[in-house]
Specification:
There is one protein chain. The chain contains twelve helices and 14 strands. It is of the alpha/beta class. The structure holds adenosine-5'-triphosphate and magnesium ion.
Length: 341
C-alpha cells in the first residue's frame, strides 16, 4: 500500500483510508487499467506553485492530451512523473508502482521525448540511438526497428548536425521507443515544426497505441492539435487541473461555431440571430454558434441556403476552431475560483 502523503497537511482519516483502499486495489489485485495516477501533486519553486494539487488518472491505452498555456505547469508535471524532480507533496504511481518507493520498477517501462530534442550533433542518428540502447542493454536490432518506425532509416548514418528540426524530433521519438515501453511521454512534440511537420507528428502519434500497445501522454498548448489526436485530456491552468475527462466531454463544453463571411452582416445577423442562437461579429466575419457537433455540416449548408435565399452573398463558410484562451474563459468562467492562484 502507498505510504501516507508527505508534508505537513494530512487528509481526513476516512479520506486517507479510501485512498489507501483504491491504491491497494491497483497494486496487483484485479486488472491494471491506470497507466499514470497522481494524487495531490505539488511542486513549488521560489514562491511559484508550478504544480498545485494535481490529480491525474490516465487510462492504459489512451492518448492522453495534457493541455495548457505557457507556464501552466506541463513540463514540471512531466519532470515529476519521471522522477527528475521531487514533489513537495503528493504521490505518483505508474502502472501501480509507487514512484517514490519503486523508482526503477516504475520507470522501467517509460519512454520520453522532451520538446527540445537533445542529441550529439557530431554523431549519426544511429550512433545517438546506440548510446541509449547500450544503457538499456537492448539488442542491436532495436535501432533499425525504431528508425524504421519513425521513418529515419534513410538518414540513419548521417550526422545529426545535418538533420532538419523535424528529423531531430523524430530521432527523439525513436529514442523514446527503444525497448518498446508501455508508456510514452512526449512534452510538446510539435514545438517549432512547420504545419506539415506538425501534421506528420500528430498522425504518427495517433498510430502509436495500436502499433505498439503503449499509452501516450502528450503535452501541448494547442487545443486543436490535442482535439485531433487525444482520446482523453486534462487541462492545466496555473498549476491546477481545470478539466479532466474524455475528449468528447471537452468537446461538449464548447459548442461548434461557424465562421461566415457575407455581403450584409447586419441583415445576416438579424436573420440568423433569433432564439437562443448566439451570433457575433469579429474581424469582418460573423461567428454563429451551433447547438451540437452532430449535424454541423448540414446546419452550415442550411445557413448558407437561408442567406442566399435572402439575397445575401456568402464568400466564406468554415467551422471556427476554439482557441485555448476561449476554452479557458469558458472553464474558468464556470468555476471562478479556478482562475485564482
Ligand atoms: N526550475 C525552475 N525554477 C523556478 N521556476 C520554475 C522552474 N521550472 C518551472 N518554473 C516555473 O513554474 C511554472 C510552470 O513552468 P512549466 O515549465 O512547468 O510550464 P509549461 O506548462 O511547461 O510551459 P511551456 O508551455 O512554456 O513549456 C512557471 O511559472 C515557471 O516559470
Ligand atoms: Mg513546457
Amino acid at each position: 500500500m502507498f505510504s501516507v502523503i508527505t508534508g505537513g497537511e494530512q487528509p481526513e482519516d476516512n479520506e486517507k483510508e479510501a485512498r489507501g483502499a483504491r491504491f491497494m486495489l491497483r497494486e496487483g489485485r484485479g486488472p491494471m487499467t491506470i497507466a499514470i495516477e497522481t494524487e495531490g501533486l505539488k511542486k513549488r519553486f521560489r514562491g511559484v506553485n508550478a504544480v498545485d494539487g494535481v490529480d491525474l488518472s490516465v487510462p492504459q491505452g489512451a492518448i492522453f492530451g495534457f493541455l495548457g498555456p505557457n507556464g501552466a505547469g506541463k513540463t514540471t508535471t512531466i519532470r515529476l512523473l519521471l522522477g527528475l524532480l521531487t514533489p513537495n507533496r503528493g504521490r505518483i504511481a505508474l502502472f501501480g508502482e509507487d514512484l517514490r518507493r519503486n523508482r526503477i520498477a516504475a520507470l522501467k517501462s517509460v519512454g520520453v521525448a522532451f520538446e527540445t530534442p537533445a542529441h550529439y550533433e557530431h554523431l549519426t542518428g544511429r550512433e545517438n540511438l546506440d548510446i541509449t540502447r547500450r544503457l538499456l542493454k537492448l539488442d542491436k536490432s532495436e535501432i533499425d526497428r525504431v528508425l524504421a518506425t519513425v521513418e529515419l532509416s534513410h538518414v540513419a548514418d548521417r550526422h545529426v548536425r545535418k538533420y532538419s528540426l523535424g528529423m531531430r524530433h523524430r530521432l527523439g521519438l525513436a529514442r523514446a521507443l527503444l525497448g518498446n515501453p508501455k508508456l510514452l511521454i512526449f512534452d510538446e512534440p510539435t514545438n517549432g515544426l512547420d504545419p506539415v511537420g506538425i501534421r506528420e507528428m500528430r498522425d504518427f502519434i495517433k498510430t502509436l497505441p495500436d502499433r505498439t500497445g503503449a499509452t501516450v501522454f502528450v503535452s501541448s498548448h494547442h487545443l486543436a492539435e490535442i482535439e485531433q489526436m487525444a482520446s482523453h485530456v486534462a487541462v492545466i491552468h496555473l498549476g491546477k487541473i481545470v478539466f479532466q475527462g474524455a475528449m468528447d466531454e471537452l468537446r461538449g463544453l464548447h459548442a461548434p461555431r461557424l465562421e461566415v463571411g457575407c455581403s450584409d452582416e447586419a441583415q445576416a445577423t438579424a436573420l440568423l440571430g433569433g432564439g437562443a442562437r448566439k451570433v457575433e461579429s469579429r474581424n469582418g466575419r460573423l461567428i454563429v454558434e451551433l447547438p451540437t457537433a452532430e449535424g454541423a455540416k448540414a446546419r452550415a449548408a442550411s445557413i448558407n441556403r437561408r442567406l442566399n435565399d435572402a439575397g445575401i452573398d456568402v464568400h466564406h463558410l468554415a467551422l471556427a476552431p476554439w482557441t485555448l484562451e476561449e476554452l479557458f474563459l469558458q472553464l474558468v468562467g464556470a468555476n471562478p475560483h479556478l482562475g485564482q492562484k
